[in-house]
Automatic annotation (TrEMBL), chain A:
CDD domains: PheRS_alpha_core (cd00496). HAMAP family: Phe_tRNA_synth_alpha1. Its EC number is 6.1.1.20. It is an enzyme of class 6 (ligase). Its cofactor is Mg(2+). Tetramer of two alpha and two beta subunits. It is found in: Cytoplasm. It comes from Terrilactibacillus tamarindi. Mg(2+) binds at residue 256. It catalyses: tRNA(Phe) + L-phenylalanine + ATP = L-phenylalanyl-tRNA(Phe) + AMP + diphosphate + H(+). This is Phenylalanine--tRNA ligase alpha subunit.
Automatic annotation (TrEMBL), chain B:
Tetramer of two alpha and two beta subunits. It catalyses: tRNA(Phe) + L-phenylalanine + ATP = L-phenylalanyl-tRNA(Phe) + AMP + diphosphate + H(+). SUPFAM superfamilies: Anticodon-binding domain of PheRS, Class II aaRS and biotin synthetases, Nucleic acid-binding proteins, PheT/TilS domain, Putative DNA-binding domain. Its main location: cytoplasm. SMART domains: B3_4, B5, FDX-ACB. Residues 410-485 form the B5 domain. It comes from the Bacteria. This is Phenylalanine--tRNA ligase beta subunit. Residues 715-808 form the FDX-ACB domain. InterPro entries: aa-tRNA-synth_II/BPL/LPL, B3/B4_tRNA-bd, DNA-bd_dom_put_sf, Fdx_antiC-bd, Fdx_antiC-bd_sf, NA-bd_OB-fold, Phe-tRNA-ligase_IIc_bsu, Phe-tRNA-ligase_IIc_bsu_bact.
C-alpha cells in the first residue's frame, strides 16, 4: 500500500508539473484529492490493514495529500504569474512613438512684453491705468504742455477725427486723466500700456499703429535720481542683472529736465556690435521730471509735488530682445512668427 | 544743423579736442550728434597742380593735353573739362590716388595719349553736385587763392574738415547757428567764446535819405522789429573760396557774394537776413503789413503763391515783394546787374512764420530759424556783420544807420529761485558755488544771495524761462552720469491688477490653452470692413472716420475685430497654411452723441478657427472644426466667467454669415455677441475653407463676471439618472426642450445632458429623436423611486404638452 501511495504521489506530481493552465490543475486536484480520488480510495481500504500498519499508512496518505495540495498551490501561483507576464508582454507598446498632440496657442509677443513690464512695476507699487484710444486734443497735447502752435507737434503728426478729437499719439493722456482723478493729492503711481497711432507710412521700422507703455510717479520730493534708481531696477530685471544704464539729456515738452535712457548692450556687453551700432549702448526709453505746467494743469501744486514719467515702445524692446528686423511682423500675425514666443 | 569742425574753431578753442571727443561731449550734454563724417573720406594723393600748357588732343575734339606741374615733376594729363586752361592752379589726383566711391586713378592711355592722373571737379572730390558753385558746375575746380604747387589739396578745399550733424529739438534752437554751438561747446569744455571781429565803416550819408520803414495794419503784433540798411556800389561776383567752402560744409550752395554773405551770417548768428535789389524795389518806403486776402506773389523759386491775412508781407507800398521770414519775391531778387541793395534784418513772430511756412509747404533755412525762435538781440549785430563783409568782399558803400521800426533791444529775463531746488530736483548735493560756476560757464549771469539765486538768462536762450529749465542746464553740464541712483523716499504703496485686468489675462490664458494664438491687428481699416460683422447691427451709420486718412486701407475705425482676423486667415491660406486658430482682444469704436463727444470704445474678444483642430497623426484621424467645436470653446469661456446659466444662443441670419449656422449670444436678454460660420460667399472671396468666427463684447460681460467661487459641499447621497429619447418635429430646438425639462423637473433635478440626436431610419419623416440623460438628486437624503418617478412624469408631461414630444420606445 505504501508503494501504491508513493506511486500515486509521483504520478500526481508529474501531472501537476505538466498542467499548462488553471483548468488542467483543477482537474488534477479533483482527480487525486476528490472524494472519488485514489487517495481517498486507499484510505477507504485501510480496514484490511493490520492495526500496526493503519496509523502509518494513514499518516503517509495525509502527508501525500498535503504535499499534492501544496504543489498545486505553488503551480497555481506560478501559472498566474505567467499569465500576467504574458498579458504585459502582449500589451507592450512603442513608447518612442509621438504622443497625441494637444494644440496650444500663445500670447502675442507684444502682450508678453507688456505683461512682463506690468508685473515688474506692480511689484514696485505701480497700478495699471488705461484710457481711451480716441482722445481730446486737450488730453493728448494741451494738458501735456503742447499748445496748438507748439513746434513739437511736428514731431508727432496725428490722425484727427475732428479738430478737437484724434487717435492718441501716446498713452500720456491716461497720465493726465489719472492725475486729474487724484484731485491734487499724491501719490500717483501708474503704468499706462496701450495702442497709439501716428501718421507714419508703414515700413520695416515705422508703423501707423504701435504699442506704448508709460509710467508716472508723482509725490512730494520725487527727484531725478529716483528716476535713475527705478530705471536701473527696471533695466536689470528686464535685460539682465549686469546691465548698466546711462541717462542722456533730451527734450520732451511734457518733462523738464528730459532724459533718454540707454542700457549697456545686452548682446556684446558694451564692447560694440551691430545691435548697438558699435556704441555699446542701446536707447530704450524717454523720460524726465514732469513739467510743472503739466502738474499744474492736472491740479497738482508744483511747488509741493514733483514727479517723473517715462515711456517706451514694446515693439522696439521685442525687436531688440529677439532680433526681429521688421515691425510689420507684429501686425501680420503669421503663426510661424507668433509661435516662436511660446516661452516668452 | 551741419557744424563744420574747422569753422567752429573760429569761435572756440578746440585744441586737444578731437572731432570724436566733441561728438561724444555734445551728445552727452544734450544735443544729439546724429552723424560725424570726414569730408575727404576716401580721398588720397590729391595735390595742387599748375597747368603749364594746354594743347588739343590730336585725335579727340573735346580732349586737351595738359602739361601739369606737381612740384617735383611735370606730367601729361588728358583733360576733357571745357574750362581747363594754361596758368590755372587745379586739384590733381595723381596716379595711385583714390577718390570717393572707391575710384582708383591709374596711368592710362586716352586715344593714344598718355594721361598721368586726373584734374578733378568738385563732384569728383565728393562734393554733392547740388552744392557745387555754378562757376565750377560743368568743369574742373580752379583755385583762386594763393596755393603751393605739389601740396595736399584737401586743406585748400576744406576737404580736411569734419561735419557734425546735430539733431536740433525745439529746446535747442539756440544751436541753429555757429555762435550758439560755440556757446554750447564752450560751456561743455569750460572755455571762452570768441565773437567775429566786426569793423564796419559807414558812409557819411544816412540811409534815411533813401529809405523809410513802417509796420502797419495789424502787423505790429507779429513784427517786433524791422531794420534795413542800404549798401551802394556793390559788385556782384562769386564769393571767395573760404566762404564758398564753409557754405558747402553747412549744406548751402554758393550763389554770389551778396547772397552768400547773407547766408553766411545767418549760419553764423542765426539771424536770417534778406537782400533786395534796391533799384527794382522801386520805392523809398518799406511797408511791413499783413497780406490781403487772395494777394499774390511770385517767390524766388518762380512759384506764384496765394496769401492769407495771417501772412506777413514786405511791400514797397504798392505790392508785396517778399513773404516775411519765408522767401523773397522774384521781382526784387539780387542779380548780376544789382548795384545797390537793401539789407533786411528783422524779427518776426515764430508762430506766424510757422503757420505760413506750413500752409505754403515752404520750409526754408530762414523760416525754420524764425519758427524756432531767435536771439532778438542779434538783429543789429548780424546786420553789421553782413554789411562789413559786403563792404570788404563786394566793395559796397554802407550808408550810415538803419531805416527801422519797432524795438531792437530786449531785456534779458531773470529767474529767481532758491538754489537748493536744483539739488531737490536732481537728487544731488552741489554747493551754491558749484551751481553758480556751471551757470556762468553756460554764459548765464548768476548771483547767490543766501538761500536765493538770481539768474540773468541771455536772450539767445529763449528756451530757458522757469526754475526747472535751470535744473536741466545744471544737470546736463554736471553730467547725469554723476547722479546717484536712489529709490523714492515717499509713501510706499501696494498695487495689483484690477478685477477686469485679471479677467482679461485669464481669458487670454484660456484661449491659448484651447489652441488659439493671440493676434494684434490694426484698428484702422477700410470703410467697408469697418462696418462688417458687427455685433450690434443698428450702429452701422456710427462708424468713426478719419478727417485726413493716409490711405483707404486705414481710414475708418473698426466696429468689429472679425474682418481683421479674416485677413489674417487669408494671409495664411495664401501661404499653404489652411489650419488656423486665432483670437484677439481689442477695442471697437462707434460715434455717439454730438461731434465733439468722444466715440464709444468697447473692448471685444473675437476668434476665428478654420481647418483642422487636430492634425492627422499615426493614431488619430484629423478633426476639422465645426460649429459645435467653437461653441464648446465659448461654453468653457462662459463657465470660466461663471455666467453659463445666463447665456443663451438664438439662431440668427446675418450678412456675411451662414444663415443656417449662426447664433447670436445673449446674456439674459441682451445680445452680447455671435458665433457662426462665414457665409460661403465670404469664404470664397477670401479663398477660405469652412471658417468659424465669434465675437463677444467683453464690456458687457465684465460687469457680469461671476467667477467668484461659492463652495458646495460634496453630495452624501446617491443620485438617480434616467435616460429618455424624445421624438419631436425637426424644427424644435433642443435647448428649448432642455429648458423645459429643467423647469418641470423641479428642485430634485440636478443635471440634464443631451447624449444623442438621431434622424433617419425608424424615425418618421420630418421628425428627430433627441436623447436626454436626466439626473435627480436630493443633497439631504436618499431619493425614493416614487419621488423620482413623480418628477420624471412631470418632465414627460411637460415636453408632451409643449413640443408634442413622444417617448421613443
Ligand atoms: Zn552691442
Amino acid at each position: 500500500m505504501k508503494e501504491k501511495l508513493l506511486a500515486l504521489k509521483e504520478e500526481a506530481f508529474a501531472l501537476i508539473e505538466n498542467a499548462s493552465d488553471k483548468k488542467g490543475l483543477q482537474d488534477v486536484k479533483v482527480k487525486y484529492l476528490g472524494k472519488k480520488g485514489p487517495i481517498t480510495e486507499v484510505l477507504r481500504g485501510m480496514g484490511k490493514l493490520s492495526k500496526d500498519e493503519r496509523p502509518v499508512i494513514g499518516a503517509l496518505a495525509n502527508e501525500i495529500r498535503q504535499a499534492i495540495e501544496l504543489v498545486i498551490e505553488q503551480k497555481q501561483t506560478k501559472l498566474q504569474e505567467e499569465l500576467i507576464q504574458a498579458q504585459l508582454e502582449s500589451e507592450t507598446i512603442d513608447v518612442t512613438l509621438p504622443g497625441k498632440s494637444i494644440k496650444t496657442g500663445n500670447a502675442h509677443p507684444l502682450t508678453s512684453i507688456i505683461e512682463e513690464i506690468e508685473d515688474l512695476f506692480i511689484g514696485l507699487g505701480f497700478s495699471i491705468a488705461e484710457g481711451p484710444e480716441v482722445e481730446q486734443d486737450y488730453y493728448n497735447f494741451e494738458a501735456l504742455n503742447l499748445p496748438k502752435d507748439h513746434p513739437a507737434r511736428d514731431m508727432q503728426d496725428s490722425f484727427y477725427i475732428t479738430n478737437e478729437i484724434l487717435l492718441r499719439t501716446h498713452t500720456s493722456p491716461v497720465q493726465v486723466r489719472t492725475m486729474k482723478k487724484h484731485q491734487g493729492k499724491g501719490p500717483v503711481k501708474i503704468i499706462c500700456p496701450g495702442k497709439v497711432y501716428r501718421r507714419d507710412t508703414d515700413d520695416a521700422t515705422h508703423s501707423h499703429q504701435f504699442m506704448q507703455i508709460e509710467g508716472l510717479y508723482v509725490d512730494k520730493k520725487v527727484r531725478l535720481s529716483d528716476l535713475k534708481g527705478i530705471l536701473t531696477v527696471f533695466a536689470k530685471k528686464m535685460f539682465g542683472e549686469d546691465r548698466d544704464i546711462r541717462l542722456r539729456p533730451s527734450f520732451f515738452p511734457f518733462t523738464e529736465p528730459s532724459v533718454e535712457m540707454d542700457i549697456s548692450c545686452f548682446k556684446c556687453g558694451g564692447h560694440g556690435c551691430s545691435v548697438c551700432k558699435h556704441t555699446g549702448w542701446i536707447e530704450i526709453l524717454g523720460s524726465g521730471m514732469v513739467h510743472p505746467n503739466v502738474l499744474e494743469m492736472a491740479g497738482f501744486d508744483s511747488t509741493v509735488y514733483s514727479g517723473f514719467a517715462f515711456g517706451m515702445g514694446p515693439e522696439r524692446i521685442a525687436m531688440l530682445k529677439y532680433g526681429i528686423d521688421d515691425i510689420r511682423h507684429f501686425y501680420t500675425d503669421d503663426v510661424r512668427f507668433l509661435e516662436q514666443f511660446k516661452r516668452a | 544743423m551741419l557744424v563744420s569742425y574747422n569753422w567752429l574753431k573760429e569761435y572756440v578753442d578746440l585744441t586737444g579736442v578731437t572731432p570724436e571727443d566733441l561728438e561724444n561731449k555734445i551728445t552727452n550734454a544734450g544735443i544729439e550728434v546724429e552723424h560725424l563724417s570726414f569730408v575727404g573720406e576716401g580721398i588720397t594723393k590729391v595735390v595742387v597742380g599748375y597747368v603749364e600748357s594746354k594743347k588739343p588732343h590730336p585725335e579727340a575734339d573735346k580732349l586737351n593735353l595738359c602739361q601739369v606741374s606737381l612740384g617735383d615733376e611735370v606730367v601729361q594729363i588728358v583733360c576733357g573739362a571745357p574750362n581747363v586752361d594754361a596758368g590755372q592752379y587745379v586739384p590733381v589726383a595723381k596716379v595711385g590716388a583714390r577718390l570717393p566711391g572707391g575710384v582708383k586713378i591709374k596711368r592710362a592711355k586716352l586715344r593714344g595719349e598718355v594721361s598721368n592722373g586726373m584734374i578733378c571737379s568738385l563732384s569728383e572730390l565728393g562734393v554733392d553736385p547740388k552744392f557745387v558753385p555754378k562757376e565750377f558746375a560743368d568743369g574742373i575746380y580752379v583755385f583762386k587763392d594763393e596755393v603751393v604747387v605739389g601740396e595736399d589739396a584737401l586743406p585748400y578745399l576744406n576737404l580736411n574738415d569734419y561735419i557734425l550733424e546735430l539733431d536740433i529739438l525745439p529746446n535747442s534752437a539756440h544751436c541753429l547757428n555757429m555762435i550758439g554751438v560755440a556757446h554750447e561747446v564752450a560751456a561743455i569744455l569750460d572755455r571762452e567764446v570768441k565773437y567775429p571781429n566786426v569793423d564796419l565803416q559807414e558812409e557819411a550819408a544816412s540811409v534815411l535819405s533813401k529809405l523809410d520803414v513802417k509796420i502797419t495794419s495789424g502787423a505790429e503784433k507779429v513784427v517786433p522789429y524791422y531794420g534795413a540798411r542800404i549798401i551802394t556800389d556793390i559788385k556782384i561776383a562769386p564769393s571767395p573760396a573760404w566762404m564758398q567752402n564753409r557754405l558747402i560744409a553747412a549744406g548751402i550752395r554758393p550763389i554770389n557774394n551778396i547772397v552768400d554773405i547773407s547766408n553766411y551770417v545767418m549760419i553764423e548768428y542765426g539771424q536770417p537776413l534778406h537782400t533786395f535789389d534796391y533799384d527794382t524795389f522801386n520805392s523809398d518806403q518799406v511797408d511791413v503789413r499783413l497780406a490781403n486776402k487772395e494777394e499774390k506773389i511770385t517767390t524766388l523759386d518762380g512759384v506764384e503763391r496765394t496769401l492769407l491775412p495771417s501772412d506777413i508781407v514786405i511791400t514797397n507800398t504798392q505790392k508785396a515783394v517778399a513773404i516775411a521770414g519765408v522767401m523773397g519775391g522774384s521781382d526784387t531778387e539780387v542779380t548780376s546787374n544789382t548795384k545797390t541793395i537793401l539789407l533786411e534784418s528783422a524779427l518776426f513772430d515764430a508762430r506766424s512764420i510757422r503757420r505760413t511756412a506750413t500752409r505754403l509747404n515752404l520750409r526754408t533755412d530762414a523760416s525754420s530759424r524764425y519758427e524756432k525762435g531767435l536771439d532778438y538781440n542779434r538783429v543789429t549785430a548780424a546786420s553789421n556783420r553782413a554789411a562789413s563783409l559786403i563792404a570788404e568782399i563786394a566793395g559796397g558803400n554802407v550808408l550810415s544807420g538803419f531805416a527801422e521800426c519797432g524795438q531792437r533791444v530786449i531785456e534779458p529775463e531773470i529767474i529767481n529761485m532758491p538754489w537748493k531746488v536744483i539739488n531737490d530736483k536732481l537728487g544731488t548735493t552741489l554747493t551754491s558755488e558749484e551751481i553758480r560756476d556751471i551757470l556762468v560757464r553756460l554764459g548765464f549771469d548768476a548771483k547767490i544771495e543766501n538761500e536765493w539765486m538770481h539768474v540773468l538768462v541771455p536772450t539767445r536762450r529763449p528756451d530757458v524761462s522757469i526754475p526747472e529749465d535751470l535744473v536741466e542746464e545744471v544737470g546736463r553740464i554736471y553730467g547725469y552720469d554723476h547722479l546717484p541712483a536712489t529709490l523714492p523716499e515717499g509713501t510706499t504703496s501696494k498695487a495689483e491688477l484690477t478685477p477686469y485686468q485679471k479677467l482679461r489675462r485669464k481669458l487670454r490664458r484660456y484661449f491659448e490653452g484651447k489652441g488659439l494664438y493671440e493676434t494684434v491687428t490694426y484698428s484702422l481699416t477700410t470703410n467697408e470692413k469697418a462696418k462688417q460683422l458687427t455685433i450690434d447691427e443698428s450702429t452701422l451709420n456710427d462708424a468713426v472716420k478719419l478727417k485726413m486718412p493716409m490711405s483707404e486701407e486705414h481710414e475708418t475705425l473698426r466696429m468689429s475685430l472679425v474682418p481683421g482676423l479674416i485677413d489674417v486667415a487669408e494671409y495664411h491660406i495664401n501661404r499653404q497654411m489652411p489650419n488656423l486658430a486665432i483670437y484677439e482682444i481689442g477695442k471697437v469704436f462707434k460715434a455717439q452723441g454730438s461731434q465733439d463727444q468722444l466715440p464709444n470704445e468697447a473692448e471685444h474678444i473675437s476668434g476665428l478657427i478654420t481647418g483642422h483642430v487636430h492634425d492627422k497623426s499615426w493614431n488619430r484621424a484629423p478633426e476639422t472644426v465645426d460649429f459645435f467645436y467653437v461653441k464648446g470653446v465659448l461654453e468653457g469661456l462662459f463657465d470660466l466667467m461663471g455666467v453659463s446659466n445666463s447665456i443663451s444662443y438664438r439662431p440668427a441670419k446675418r450678412p456675411d454669415l451662414h444663415p443656417g449656422r449662426t447664433a447670436t449670444i445673449h446674456l439674459n436678454d441682451e445680445c452680447v455677441g455671435y458665433i457662426g460660420q462665414l457665409h460661403p460667399n465670404v469664404q470664397n472671396d477670401h479663398d477660405l475653407n469652412e471658417t468659424y468666427v465669434f465675437e463677444i463684447s467683453l464690456a458687457h460681460l465684465r460687469d457680469q463676471d461671476q467667477s467668484e467661487i461659492t463652495y458646495h459641499s460634496l453630495p452624501r447621497f446617491p443620485s438617480i439618472t434616467r435616460d429618455i429619447a424624445l421624438v419631436v418635429d425637426q424644427s424644435v430646438f433642443a435647448d428649448h426642450i432642455k429648458q423645459s425639462i429643467q423647469e418641470a423637473g423641479g428642485k430634485l433635478l440636478s443635471d440634464v445632458t443631451i447624449f444623442d440626436v438621431y434622424e433617419g431610419e425608424h424615425i418618421e419623416e420630418g421628425k428627430k429623436s433627441i436623447a436626454f440623460s436626466i439626473t435627480y438628486l436630493d443633497p439631504e437624503r436618499t431619493l425614493t423611486d416614487e419621488e423620482v418617478s413623480r418628477a420624471h412624469d412631470r418632465v414627460l408631461a411637460s415636453v408632451k404638452e409643449k413640443f408634442d414630444a413622444v417617448l421613443r420606445s
